[in-house]
């Protein structure tokens, strides 16, 4: 008797049909198993005039983009894109995980749409959409709410291949301030209640020429791998990086080489941590 351990993988997935529904990775929203192989096949009921749409909520504690999510056909292999429209009446989803610790997985809503439609791409968080047609040659225009900055395309068009010409833009909240006092505190927005989403904050600490600036991290808690604080030695975006920090590990003290430090904080479109509390002094 021989036992083949090569096939000691868990299998999952299913065959699904329209007009719509939801499925998730195994155990969602808890961590999925390692060494799993899942295949979902979604087939539209009306084979003549239907496409499928997916919304992904890929989880966020991945240390690296692995386990990978393979989408078929391969040209649609864009796991971060929220909306994917199939080119035929069928779509495959293949999840393969390795032995490393998994993330909490994903959830997919699918539904059939008309053959000439690109599907509803949604509206950006903190944004406004003009236009509500999703058919070939329809155009959607986007603006951001007051105080937010638009990153990406201001308008997108539904192309003949049933794909939007670009992803919808994002609206970010810019926060800028300068610190010139010899000592002070830098707090992330709404610390410690959570800093929210779509942020791009830049704080500049300027001390007397010839002095240096010391940073002490009193508290630090960011969404790991998706929200970042970068500390740069100087006042420009191109200044050398002293450190880049994410997650919940409190960084140790930092000292500038010059008399100016630039703190850049970026938060993505979902999930937040407490934020950070940093004190500085110069000498
Ligand atoms: Ca985030």
TrEMBL record:
Residues 12-113, 175-283 form the CUB domain. Disulfide bonds join 144-171. Keywords: Disulfide bond, Repeat, Sushi. Residues 116-173 form the Sushi domain. SMART domains: CCP (SM00032), CUB (SM00042). The keyword Cytoplasm does not apply. Gene3D superfamilies: Complement Module, domain 1, Spermadhesin, CUB domain. Coiled coil: none annotated. Pfam families: CUB, Sushi. CDD domains: CCP (cd00033), CUB (cd00041). This is Uncharacterized protein.
